């Protein structure tokens, strides 16, 4: 009888955990759908909302753009030199740039940009939103006739998406330029071959996967911390809110990365 009761209790706890897990992900999907509709609604871009959105776009992009781009340029320079030297020693120099483009541009830079924006911007934004919720400031906005989703949530999500895409695209361009200069120098002699190589790597299927991966990375790092802040337990501390968002975000990023690798190489 005791073992039967223990088994039933364990099954009940597992059932509750599964329901909570499904409810959390449903809330995330619902929030994403609502914010998509708000982003397409002209009423979301009234003057006050535009000012808040512009402030978040600047705060989440400008302070980190230069530093991240310089860091990517240095990493691109070092990695390209290592790969080119190693490939030359094995007589495989014609594969060096292709390896650099595939590893650096296709895989590392979008992932690094997403994680960088998450740590520097979106997870702190989510914790800040959790603090506003705990202090009742979101309810105060509702009583004033202001939709908190318009004023506080949508600007943070949009700025996170914009920052991730901006960092990824700009850093990829810088990495491609640095790779060319490292191998061919400042002349134009290798431009035709480099352009042809780039086209061979970025065929339509790979380009589509790259765009979708960058988009889903930006959605993951922007939506999940905000959802954790809005639907988390009110008694959670700032650190707890950040950790919950971090764990869920890493799970989604890992899933997207695995799917992109399967799409590119299988």
What does it look like?
The protein is mainly α and about 270 residues long. It is built from eight helices and no strands. It is about 85% helix and about 0% strand. It is globular, with a radius of gyration of 23 Å. It starts with a helix and ends with a helix.
Strand-residue fraction? under 5%
Outline: globular
Please provide the ordered H/E string of secondary-structure elements: HHHHHHHH
Structural class: mainly alpha
Rg value: 23 Å
Number of helices: 8
Low-confidence stretches: none
Q: Percent range for helical residues?
A: over 70%
C-alpha termini separation: 52 Å
Largest sheet properties:
none
Mean residue pLDDT: 83
Total strands: 0
List the helices and strands and how they pair.
Blueprint: H1 2-39, H2 47-89, H3 96-134, H4 137-143, H5 148-184, H6 191-201, H7 204-231, H8 238-265
Q: Which keywords apply here?
A:
globular, 266 residues, mainly alpha, 8 helices
Kindly summarize this structure in a few lines.
By secondary structure, this protein is mainly alpha-helical.
């Amino acid at each position: 009888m005791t073992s039967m009761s223990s088994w039933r209790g364990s099954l009940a706890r597992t059932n509750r955990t599964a329901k909570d897990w499904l409810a959390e992900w449903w809330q995330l999907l619902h929030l994403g759908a609502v914010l998509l509709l708000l982003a397409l609604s002209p009423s979301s871009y009234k003057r006050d909302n535009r000012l808040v959105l512009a402030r978040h776009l600047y705060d989440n992009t400008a302070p980190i753009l230069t530093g991240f781009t310089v860091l990517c340029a240095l990493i691109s320079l070092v990695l390209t030199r290592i790969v080119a030297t190693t490939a030359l020693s094995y007589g495989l120099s014609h594969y060096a740039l292709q390896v650099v483009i595939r590893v650096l541009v296709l895989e590392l830079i979008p992932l690094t940009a997403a994680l960088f924006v998450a740590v520097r911007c979106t997870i702190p934004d989510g914790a800040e939103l959790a603090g506003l919720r705990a202090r009742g400031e979101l309810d105060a906005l509702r009583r004033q006739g202001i939709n908190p989703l318009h004023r506080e949530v949508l600007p943070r999500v949009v700025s996170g998406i914009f920052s991730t895409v901006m960092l990824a695209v700009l850093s990829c361009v810088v990495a491609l330029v640095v790779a060319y200069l490292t191998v061919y120098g400042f002349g134009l002699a290798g431009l035709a071959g480099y352009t042809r190589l780039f086209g061979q790597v970025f065929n339509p299927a790979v380009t589509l996967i790259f765009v979708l991966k960058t988009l889903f990375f930006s959605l993951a790092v922007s939506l999940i911390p905000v959802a954790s802040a809005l639907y988390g337990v009110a008694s959670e501390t700032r650190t707890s809110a950040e950790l919950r968002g971090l764990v869920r975000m890493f799970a989604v990023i890992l899933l997207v990365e695995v799917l992109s690798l399967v799409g590119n190489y299988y």
